[in-house]
């Protein structure tokens, strides 16, 4: 009888979930994240904390470091809004694979956040979550506890609920307003050993937001626009297989943490 009751309760739970999904507005279900206002998010979920620094970490999102007003606690967050759900999942998978800690997919006992989530471990007697990566729609959020902050699972759930509830810090839309890489130029695209080139990326944003530029494998130059990079045709910079064609992937991100599509540029080193 106990087994039958358990089966019946499980069937009812599934039915309730299906009915709830049917009652959802299909227009809202199909919407993707079109940007996140981190200042507003912090004011809602991290009162008493202020931004210490931020930096774009290529396709792993923009990293934000927050510190409490008494400087006793800090928190690290990486946030990225991707052109599609698939690209957000690829970025999360790459991070989990390359990170020094082993990230295990959720759910964990009764804990689940986002559409998918990963965490390296539970901690302490209460099995607290000290680091979590989760995806909701096309948005990736990575939260890790710094000095004195404590567990981050509760914060992750609150942020996720805010996304679903369309809180003021989140923008949902059917058509994403992505920044666009319009063109990439180089002072030289064909080099001989020992020569250098400056590569400049030109991008635009449909909402006229400011843009941050990034690439792996080149040195970013200190320019006003921040869109120029230097490469040197030497083994130290380009690797042992110097001669031939070298490909570089560029990304840009706007103020709302929305990524562009990736653009590839090639340099050739002659023998």
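Sequence proposed for the structure above (271 residues):
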């Amino acid at each position: 009888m106990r087994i039958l009751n358990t089966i019946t309760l499980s069937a009812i739970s599934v039915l309730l979930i299906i009915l709830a999904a049917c009652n959802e507005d299909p227009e809202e279900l199909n919407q993707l994240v079109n940007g996140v206002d981190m200042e507003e998010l912090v004011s809602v979920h991290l009162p008493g904390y202020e931004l210490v620094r931020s930096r774009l970490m290529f396709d792993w999102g923009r990293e934000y470091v927050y510190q409490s007003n008494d400087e006793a606690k800090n928190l690290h967050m990486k946030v990225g809004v991707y052109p599609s759900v698939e690209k957000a999942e690829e970025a999360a998978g790459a991070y989990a694979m390359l990170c020094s800690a082993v990230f295990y997919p959720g759910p964990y006992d009764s804990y689940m956040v986002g559409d998918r989530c990963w965490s390296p471990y539970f901690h302490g007697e209460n099995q607290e979550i000290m680091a979590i990566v989760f995806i909701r729609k096309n948005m990736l959020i990575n939260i890790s506890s710094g000095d004195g902050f404590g567990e981050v699972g509760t914060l992750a759930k609150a942020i996720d609920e805010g996304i679903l509830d369309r809180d003021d810090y989140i923008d949902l839309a059917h058509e994403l307003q992505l920044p666009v890489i319009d063109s990439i130029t180089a002072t030289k695209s064909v080099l001989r050993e020992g020569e250098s080139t400056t590569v400049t990326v030109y991008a635009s944003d449909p909402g006229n937001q400011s843009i941050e530029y990034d690439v792996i494998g080149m040195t970013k130059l200190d320019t006003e626009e921040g869109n120029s990079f230097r490469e040197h045709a030497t083994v130290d910079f380009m690797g042992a297989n110097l001669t031939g064609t070298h490909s570089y992937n560029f990304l840009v991100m706007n103020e709302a943490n929305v990524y562009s599509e990736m653009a590839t540029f090639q340099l050739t080193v002659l023998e």
